[in-house]
Amino acid sequence: MIRIFNHYVSKMAFILLVLELAMLLASASLASALWFSDVRDQFRADNLYLSSLTFALVIIFSMSALGMYQHSAREGIRTTLIRIMPSFALGFALLSALIAVRPEIYFGRGISSVIFALGASGVLLTRLVVFKSAESALLEARLIFVGSGPLARECMELAASKFGFHQFHVVGCVPLPGEPNCIGQANLLPMGDSLLEMARRYEASEIVVTVTNRRGSAFPIRQLLACALGGVKVIDAATFFEREACQIRIDSLQPSYLIFGGGFDQSFICASSKRLFDLAASSVIGLVTLPAMLVAAASIAWEDGGPVFYRQERVGRDGRLFEVFKFRSMRKDAEEGCPPTWAAPDDPRITRVGHWLRMLRIDELPQLFNVLKGEMSFVGPRPERAYFVERLIGEVPYYNVRHSIKPGITGLAQVRYKYGASTEDAIRKLQYDLYYVKNNSLFLDLLILIDTVQVVVFGKGSR
């Protein structure tokens, strides 16, 4: 994994993106050179470069938006083709919209067909080569876990689930005296040699410390230091989860990790750039989705004649309360005479129009007004109601950390986890929120916005 603006990105995914960008640019340039070599038409060179770059970037965006760089399983030719086809279809639609605004980037009907065919073939070939390379044992990271308790088991499960670009081979776990054993006997390593000798013998590239109590005499601090000095990377479980799952796990979290672990950039430059991004994104998306919002408002009024908008008090930055704006998706008397409750699957309070508004996330669009007012950001932890916040602060450690920045319309937890409707769900989502609060940047905001397209298109997490 590599870090780009504090966010962990798979090396193989990054290499794949660069190779595919180059392949798409080459496809457009090669097709253009062949097509215009007999001077059938005049096409200025600067237009050729602009058109080729536009084509490549739009296709890359379309593939990203449909999750083609979130490689979580081994793929064959058929699966890759199935994933490429809708991505190129979305790219074609986006390019058609751009050509309507900027006609000079239009190649022409005939050459466009050739470019799309060459581009799809190039992407397919690139992916097959990269995926086959990713399965090579030479690219596997070999891990040794120090500890055999519950945290070691969770780390092993996470390592085993990494079937995609970044694969692991777990050599085994080194048990320590006084720690409960949650690992099968076959996965335990004998503690006869030093950790450094063991790492060299098994060719381990990394040692992950999963021991929660590091104060006892049984904790091998000197051996871990020898490993670090001997060229074997040593990390703790919190770093492993942050790097591989984009989570800061509460069960393995110590206050020192938040204090000395870096991140939490709240500088003037960071805040100013994020505010400009919020204003630009809200203005553009507001204009683009205005027709959909008008249709939504008319549909809500037509269904039951009730109010179109719904206001609800939420907790914002530093615990300040504000009113969030949403399209009303429930009955007018949804919470009359009862305490606040989370929405449930097939919730009877949701109207017919509200079901589709929630499915397409259109009910969230009025929150653009909250962003323009400065109460919210476009990307950030979702704001929760004060009733639930008071309860969760008492039950969930570090829950209040998410209120150190502005809440958002969309966020990392929204694109990585399902709809939250329980304390357990709140804990799972908090682990993504803590990662975002610690590592937030414009780069991460852009990635989350792209993932939000996939969530909206496939209706993930809606309720």
Automatic annotation (TrEMBL):
Domain of life: Bacteria
A GO CC annotation given for this chain: membrane
Membrane topology, as annotated: Multi-pass membrane protein
Keywords associated with the record: Membrane, Transferase, Transmembrane, Transmembrane helix
Compartment list: Membrane
Transmembrane segment boundaries: 12-36, 48-69, 81-101, 107-130, 276-302
Bacterial sugar transferase domain span: 274-457
GO molecular function terms noted in the UniProt entry: phosphotransferase activity, for other substituted phosphate groups
Protein family: Belongs to the bacterial sugar transferase family.
Protein name listed in UniProt: Sugar transferase
Organism: Massilia eurypsychrophila
